[in-house]
Amino acid sequence: MPLQSAVIDADVRSQMGRDGKRTAQKTVLDARQRLMSSSGTRASYDFELLHDYAQSRISAALPMAAIVVILSTVASLWVPVVFTTLWAAAVLLGLLIVVMVASRFRRSDPAKFNATNWTTTFIAGEMIYGLSWSLLALFTLVAPAETLTPVMFAMVLVSVAANAVTTNTLPPATLMSTLPVTLTVSANLVAVGGTLNYTLAAVAVCGEIFFVYLARQLHASELETITHQAEKDSLINELEEARQMSDEARRHAEQANIAKSQFLATMSHELRTPLNAIIGFSEVLKSELLGTHQVPQYKEYAGDIHASGQHLLNLINELLDLSRIEAGKYDLNEEAVSLVDIAEDCRRMMELRAKSKGIELAYNVGNNLPKLWGDERAIRQVVLNLLSNAIKFTPPNGKVTLVVTRSGDGGQLVSVKDNGPGIPEDEIATVLSSFGQGSLAQKTAEQGAGLGLPIVQKIMELHQGRFDLFSKLRFGTEVIATFPRARVMDALAPVVEKRSRLEIYSEAG
Question: Where does this protein have coiled-coil stretches (predicted)?
Answer without folding.
Answer: 232-259
